[in-house]
Each structure stands twice: as C-alpha cells, then as structure tokens.
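Q: I'm a student working through a structural biology exercise. My instructor gave each of us a protein and asked us to get a predicted structure, then write a short paragraph describing it. Mine is Transcriptional regulator, LysR family. I'm not confident about reading structure output yet, so if you can add a plain explanation after the tokens, that would really help. Here is the sequence I was given:
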Amino acid sequence: MEYKDPPENRIGSRLESDTPQIFRMLRNIDLNLLTVFEAVYVHKGIVNAAKILNLTPSAISQSIQKLRTIFPDPLFIRKGQGVTPTAYATHLHEYISQGLDSILGALDLSGGYDKQRTMTIGTSPTVGALVMPAIYQSVKSRFPQVLLRNVAVTDASAQLNQFQTDLVIDTHAVGTRAHGHHLLYRDSMVLVGRQGHPALAACTPPEAMTQYEYTLLMLEGAAHAELRKRIYEIFPERQISFSSYNLVTIAALIAGSDLLGLMPFRCFSLFARCWPLQVIDFPAIADESVDVALYYNKMSLRDEMLQNVIAAICQVF
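A: Happy to help. First, here is the predicted structure for Transcriptional regulator, LysR family. I'll explain a few features afterward.
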C-alpha cells in the first residue's frame, strides 16, 4: 500500500509552515531571560544568581516575573533563604541547559571548550590519501572533540576567502596576502612505468626515451607552469598520448600499458601498493620536485582551536 502523503512529508511540510510562527515566538522572548532562569536554577537563589551574573537581586526578580508571564507556571517557590524549582521548571531546565550548552559550543573561541568541533580541510583526492591519515591521528590524539571533514579543492583561494574551508592542503600555491601557509613537505618527481617495461633495461640511453609515449597530468597555477616548462626542456620531443587531471587514472593506465608518466614519489609509493608500477631511473629529473603546503585565511587565526590544529598538522610533517 502506498501513501499519497507519507508521514515524513507531512512532518517536513508542517515544520516548514511553522517556521514563521517559530520566529515570531522567539522575537517575543528575551533570550537573556533564559540565562537568568538557568542561573537561578543552578545556584538555587536569586541573590546567588545576581552575584554570578553581576546584576542586582531586583533585576533577577523582575526577570523571573517576566518568565512567569511567558510560561504557565511560577517556576520557583521560596524556600528558606533561597528558592526551589517547580516540576515544570525542572522540565524546562533539561531543554534550556542543552540549548545553552550547544550555543556555547558553537561560539567557543578559546579552543578550550570540550565540545565537538568540525574542521574542514580541502585537498585533492591524491593529496588527501597521502596526508589525511597522518593528520587524523595527530589531531584526534590531541583534540578528540574535533571532527575532521575532507572536501575537494575546486578554487582554493575562493574557498578560503569565503570561509568554505578552514584549511587547504595542495601543491597549487595560493598566493595572496590574505592567506598564510606552511610547507609540509617537498616531494621529488620520478619517472614511472609498469613492471617489466622495456625502458627498465639498463642499457637504455636517455635519447631512446623519446620512442615511448607519455601521460600528462594537467596542473594549474604559476608554480606548476614553471615545472611544466622545465619538464618540457628535459623531454622536448615527448609524445603525449593521454592526459588527465586525475593522477589515480594515470597510474592505473600506466600499469596496464607501455605508457610512461611523471609523478611525485610519495604518490608512486601509494599507487605501487595497488598496481605493478616501477620507478625508471632517469637522472635528468633528479632535481625536480613539488611542494605540498597547508594554506589558511589569516583572519581565521583568531580561532585558537584552528591554530592548535595547524600546529598539530605541522608537527606530523
């Protein structure tokens, strides 16, 4: 049997229709009154609550009176020198305390509030596979309340400027004054082919390398433009048979053909666990490398927890 209007749809539509009413109700409630309520409840007295909130007992009493006009209950009953909460007040406390606790966790700027915090780190898939396991172990061992979220890098500068990510780890330099960075590591470039490739023969001269077809990893950015220029000078007659933005695809293709390709050594080490790949000794590229760096928006450094996470990441590398 099918429902024309499933329960979840009815619930969702009801929540949407009730949203304006919720805002109207909240607009008519001074949320500071809830802070007063919690102080009186926890410290069991108007005088004690006034001291904690740096207010006068009269101001606290007036706030309680306002709360009594909102809720259908006296909330607190005088008992000796203090007050005791009603059953209704105890019920309210369970929800109000949770709400204030969540707000404090969201607004925490000291980095010391022991509540869950999500940190978003942008990487490419390959860089993420290389760095995120070590980052996860380092951050979680120091700050177990931090949740890590890994997203794709689409436009590193825009993502940082618009605070869509807390951090970006990439080989592409984000070169604006608004961004800071830390170099995590420098990775040497290697020439890679499948195991048993003819170019692995010890007698293969450098000029003979032009007879093979190559893959090309398409990279953007000024730093990569310089690297592409130097590689072109090393391989001026290189025949490009396949190009891709995805280094995983390139590695898989190299493993199943006679194509050759250049990639960072750490990437090769990762892919060699999955496919029969081997480094081909080619001294001409021995000095070539790529930098993998961590980037952040300098304005975000006001967040002490982010500073702590950056320090934890840098210590790993």
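A: Here are two points you could use in your paragraph. The domain at 184-291 is CATH 3.40.190.10 (D-Maltodextrin-Binding Protein; domain 2). The two ends are 59 Å apart (CA to CA). It's a good idea to check both against the output above yourself.
Q: Great, thank you!
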